[in-house]
Amino acid sequence: MDGVTRATFCSRNAHKARELERLLPGWSLQTLDVEGWPDEAGETYVENARAKARFGRQHGDPGTWMIGEDSGIEVEALDGRPGLHSARYAPEGAPAIARLLRELDGVPDRRARFVSELVALSPAGEEVAGTGILEGRIAAEPHGSGGFGYDPVFVPDGEERTVAELGDEWKQRHSHRARAARALLAALGAALALVAAGCGGDPKTANHVLAAFFAGGPRARQLGKVFPHKTGSVPCVLEPGGPATVKPLQATCSTDVSLVKPDRAVVTLTEAWNHGAQAHTWFFFIRRSGVVESVVQEGAAAPQARR
């Protein structure tokens, strides 16, 4: 085994496939080049994404995961259009942007949002899903050369530039598809908790994996100063990394581990503060030897926390 999870992205959209592969560390995606694709007739993004994944299950490699995706841009002043019909609104790129700007000509309310829904089907038929939403507004005219689709006219909340100007590195962290991918990986961390044959569910194996992880690289050793080295939660103090006037933050630090066939694991570390109202989570995808292959983070970092 090379540690790579192989999957079929149930689409012929090469742009989305390349973007999604970058967002799913440890995964290798191939597109599904077949005829007879089903119409996007669902009433929700998830219905359309599920239909694509099921179509892939019928026509693709039965031994790989199938991933279906549906996404759209919803414009407030257009009552949510193009929405589910974004791909059919106009040909992708300049024609679709031109039509959108014509419809918004003279309209002061430019609020909009990108929505992405991912549905993954395992070879055994289990389903996991992830949703991502990016709020923003429609610019008066296109700017930037990066990205694709409506990126040249979409300005995310908190930014002054379009997604096309912000570039691929920004998209990989903040886009609606990046957020859906993180949600999918979080769901997979639970769905893939298949204890390896011979483990028998013995917690000693999980403790051995955690011991190897926390004894690993400098990042894991640093986190190991506040997180428990076995599954569970403990009170912890997040020391300030900023001005001396910032007080230490009282929090709860939790550790969990999912054992994945044949020799991998997902270590989940969560710090929660403000009575649980805010949290930050790391998902470490590792070898059972403790070697980290990739990491995904979800949630805002604790204010001024030193890591």
What's the CATH topology name of the largest domain? Maf protein
Helical fraction: 25-40%
The CATH architecture of the largest domain comes to: Alpha-Beta Complex
Question: Briefly, what CATH class of the largest domain?
Answer: Alpha Beta
Strand line-up in the sheet with most strands: 2-1-3-4-5-6
Query: What do the pLDDT scores average to?
Result: 83
How many domain regions? 2
Proportion of residues in extended strands: 25-35%
Furnish the topology, listing elements before pairings:
Blueprint: E1 5-9, H1 14-23, E2 27-31, H2 45-59, E3 65-75, H3 86-89, H4 94-103, E4 111-121, E5 127-138, E6 154-156, H5 163-174, H6 176-191, H7 203-214, H8 218-223, E7 232-238, E8 249-260, E9 264-273, E10 278-287, E11 292-298
Parallel strand pairs: 1-2, 1-3
Antiparallel strand pairs: 3-4, 4-5, 5-6, 7-8, 8-9, 9-10, 10-11
List its traits.
six-stranded mixed β-sheet; alpha+beta; 11 strands; 307 residues; 30% strand; 2 domains; 28% helix; Maf protein; 8 helices; five-stranded antiparallel β-sheet
Description:
By secondary structure, this protein is of the alpha+beta class. It has eight helices and eleven strands. The strands form two sheets. Strands 2-1-3-4-5-6 form a six-stranded mixed beta sheet. A five-stranded antiparallel beta sheet has the order 7-8-9-10-11, sandwiched between helices.
